[in-house]
Structure formats: C-alpha cells, structure tokens
Structure to design on (455 residues):
C-alpha cells in the first residue's frame, strides 16, 4: 500500500477494535482498582472498630478519674512503631491514656464525639505517615458517681494499604496489557481468516480481468454468495453478448456474400442495370442486415435488468392477436397474476410471447391459452418465470419436438410461415439461461413451456 493510499478494511477493523479493547481494559482496570480500594478501607475500618470495642471491654477508671484498659489484647498496641495506635481522652480533651505504640510517633488526635457516636477520619503523622482513625464517644458510669464522658481513639497506618494498592495497580496494568495484546493478536488472526474470502474474491476478479478465469468459483460465505452469484451472472451475460456479436458478424458476412456477388455480376454485365432485378437483391440485403442486428441485441442479461411487470405486456399482445385472428374465430385466453414481475427486457418478452402465441394461433383450431406463473428454487434469491402456451391443434409429434426448434423446419408444411418462430424463441430463452419444453396440452394440441430461472 502506497503512502497516503487507502487503508485496507482489515487495518481499519484492527485499529478500531484495538481502540475499543484499550478503552475496555482501561475501564476494567479502573473499576477493579476502585473496588479493591473500597474493600481495603472497609477491612481497616472493621479492624479499628474491633480495637475500640476491645478497649471498652477492658477499660477501668483509675484513681485520677481517667479511663485506661487493664490489659492489651492486641500485641501491636504494645509495640512502638507497629502502625496501630490507641488513645483515650476525657470530655475536656485531656489525654488519660495512650498505647505504648504511640511512643515517638508524635500522634495527637484531638476531638470530641457524643456517646455512642462513631466517626472515621484521615490523619497524617509528623513523619508523613498516613493514618485512618476511628473515634468513639462513651459515657462511663460508676455506682454513686456522675457519668463521665470519654473519647476512645484507634488509628492504623495506611502505608501498607497504599503499597498494596500500588502493587495491585502494577499487576492490573501489566495483566491488562498482556490480555489486550493477546486478545488483539487473536482478533488479527480471526480477521485474517474472516477476510480470506474477500482476498480470494479480489484475486479471482483480477484473474477475470486478465482473462485467465471466466467465472468466480467458491464456495463462498453467505454474505458473499449473492455478490458472487450476481457477478457470475453478469460475466455470463457479457460472454453471451460477445458471442452473439461475433456470430452476428459472421452470419451477416456470410449472408451478404450471395446478394453482393449478384449485384457485382449485374454491374459487370453490359447494358443498364434493371431496377426489377436489382431491387429484390437490395431488399434482401436490407432484410438480412435488420434481422442479424436484431438478433445481436437480444436483451438477455437478466442480472442487469430491473424486475418489470409481465401482465401488461401479455395483455397488450393478447389483445392485438385477438384482432388479427378474429376472422378465424380463435379464442385466446390469458391467465397471469397482476403483480407478477421478472427482469426481462420488454422487447424480448414481446418477441418470446408473440412467437409462441402466434404459432399457437396458426396451428390451433379454436382455443389458445397463455399462462404466466412464478417458479421457485431453493438457491434462487428471487423467483423465476414460466410462460406456457397451449392450443387445441394437431400438436407436435415427439419425433419433431427437437427439430421444430431449429431455424427453417416446420412440423406442418401446409401452414404458411418461414419456420423460424420457435427458433427465435429458443435464441431468446438461451440468452436468459432458460429452457423450453414441448408436450401435449389438455386442450388436445401442443403445449410449449418456457422456464426462465431466478437469480
């Protein structure tokens, strides 16, 4: 890919998913960090609450009216620098007791709390150590003495907690990074597998352009099956169109040889050209050119046509032939759904149905019936079309059914015509990859069915 060129679909997907994955990992890390911090603080609050309750359970009034525990249930309170501290102050704020662990720490947590009131607060020692402290107000009563108020304070260093948070964050960052890279690598591999059909399609299209391939070959995933099917239909249509052009030029050149040679002979003959002799040759050449050009532009290419209503065309055609064969007493019946559509060129439909219906009117005795219906198949994305024309004439013998589709032969030589009607039908049907079936009609004569496939 050149600098500044278009970015591939795979690169865009990887970049987009990478950003989404990064944001998701960041949010997950932040969520886990907040959850762990909250749980850690709750655990330390529970520790401090237990220490305060233990102080209340072992506290006694001394001779000076102060309150002090008779023994320490927690060994850390007796160890200086342990990180766990306790103090007791009276209602005036005077320190009546402090744990041995506070020696040298500079801890001084003043404050008041109503009896039964608990309050947590953050504090900092002179050396910068961060603490979480709990203050509990109590009312101490002794027989024959007024109640005294005290504030029991327990505090714990948060430095181990913050160190633990730092380790957790480092672990989360590293783990999230490794997880994101592993997942991104997996996405790259998965996308490589997912876009492999696209690369195969790109390669085969290049081979079609270079002439080394004539159609796209699968199997293709469902998402590409419709696209490749349409492209194959388009390629087939273009090949058929090219073949028709080549055949038309060959037919035209071959057909014009005889009238041109005749005109050349007339020009070389002594005397003036006889108009009555030249005119038929010129008319013949014009007829040949018109016929070959018409064959060259047979629509076909259903893959490139929009679906068009069938009923209006057949109705107009039926009405016209009713007038043509009115003197012969032909009864022409038409059965077609008003909403029936098929991607068929209007001119092709006129020629296809017109030749079938005209042929049936020529050979039928009285009744002719035309019907158009949908046909379905599992691998078609849209339905096909079946056009059937029946008559009550003598029918077509099984031995003649293949022969009448050729240009020239007719099953009944007593009827006027050139024997090209069904041959023209066959050419139009072939352009649409359809097929023709000739059989017997319930009316007693011939039945000609044309099946055009869906896509």
């Amino acid at each position: 890919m050149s600098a500044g060129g278009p970015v591939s679909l795979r690169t865009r997907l990887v970049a987009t998913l990478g950003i989404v994955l990064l944001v998701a990992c960041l949010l997950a890390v932040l969520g886990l960090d907040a959850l762990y911090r909250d749980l850690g603080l709750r655990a330390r609050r529970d520790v401090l609450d237990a220490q305060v309750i233990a102080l209340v359970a072992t506290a006694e009034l001394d001779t000076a009216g102060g309150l002090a525990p008779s023994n320490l249930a927690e060994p850390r309170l007796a160890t200086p620098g342990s990180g766990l501290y306790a103090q007791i102050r009276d209602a005036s704020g005077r320190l009546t007791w402090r744990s041995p662990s506070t020696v040298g720490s500079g801890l001084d947590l003043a404050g008041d709390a109503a009896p039964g009131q608990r309050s947590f607060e953050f504090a900092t020692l002179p050396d910068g150590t961060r603490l979480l402290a709990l203050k509990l107000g109590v009312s101490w009563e002794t027989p024959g003495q007024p109640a005294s108020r005290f504030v029991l304070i327990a505090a714990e260093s948060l430095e181990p907690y913050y160190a633990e948070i730092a380790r957790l964050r480092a672990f989360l960052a590293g783990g999230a990074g490794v997880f994101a890279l592993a997942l991104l690598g997996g996405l790259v591999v998965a996308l490589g597998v997912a876009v492999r059909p696209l690369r195969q399609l790109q390669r085969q299209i290049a081979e079609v352009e270079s002439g080394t391939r004539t159609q796209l070959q699968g199997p293709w995933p469902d998402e590409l099956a419709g696209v490749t099917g349409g492209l194959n239909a388009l390629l087939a249509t273009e090949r058929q169109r090219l073949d028709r052009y080549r055949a038309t030029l060959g037919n035209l050149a071959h057909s014009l040889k005889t009238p041109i040679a005749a005109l050349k002979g007339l020009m070389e003959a002594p005397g003036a050209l006889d108009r009555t002799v030249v005119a038929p040759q010129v008319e013949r050449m014009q007829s040949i050119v018109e016929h070959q050009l018409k064959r060259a532009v047979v629509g076909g290419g259903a893959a490139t046509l929009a679906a068009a209503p069938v009923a209006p065309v057949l109705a107009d055609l039926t009405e016209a032939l009713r007038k043509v064969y009115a003197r012969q007493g032909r009864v022409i019946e038409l059965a077609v759904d008003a909403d029936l559509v098929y991607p068929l060129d209007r001119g092709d439909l006129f020629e296809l149905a017109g030749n079938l219906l005209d042929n049936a009117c020529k050979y039928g005795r009285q009744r002719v019936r035309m019907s158009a219906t949908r046909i379905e198949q599992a691998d078609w994305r849209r339905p096909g079309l079946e056009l059937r024309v029946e008559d009550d004439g003598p029918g077509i013998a099984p031995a003649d059914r293949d022969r009448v589709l050729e240009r020239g032969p007719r099953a009944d030589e007593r009827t006027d015509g050139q024997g090209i009607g069904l041959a023209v039908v066959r050419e139009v049907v072939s352009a649409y990859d359809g097929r023709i079936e000739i059989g017997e009609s319930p009316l007693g004569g011939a039945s000609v069915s044309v099946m055009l496939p869906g896509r």
User: Anything to note?
Assistant: The longest strand covers residues 130-142. Residues 9 and 25 are 24 Å apart (CA to CA). The chain has three domains: 14-163, 235-296, 302-452.
